[in-house]
Write a structure and sequence with these properties.
Blueprint lengths: L1 E9 L9 E12 L3 E3 L2 E5 L2 E2 L2 H9 L4
Antiparallel strand pairs: 1-2, 3-4, 4-5
Length: 63
């Protein structure tokens, strides 16, 4: 499992009507990510650990 992070400018085609202006934009990929959302762990070293999210990932064949 991996995550992709985008920082900086966001175009108006993504966030209407004017996007989020910034001087530049970059993307980065992190492998084997551990991530939390609102204090609840979603990923542990690239594996989905949240039960609800794991069920959705299983439907996509990603678990």
């Amino acid at each position: 499992g991996a995550t992709e992070w985008g920082l900086g400018n966001i175009g108006s085609c993504v966030i209407a009507p004017v996007g989020v202006p910034a001087a530049s934009h970059t993307d980065g990929v992190c492998l084997n990510t551990s991530a939390w959302l609102d204090g609840k762990q979603m990923l542990n070293e690239g594996r989905v650990v949240d039960e609800e999210l794991a069920a959705l990932a299983a439907k996509l064949g990603k678990v």
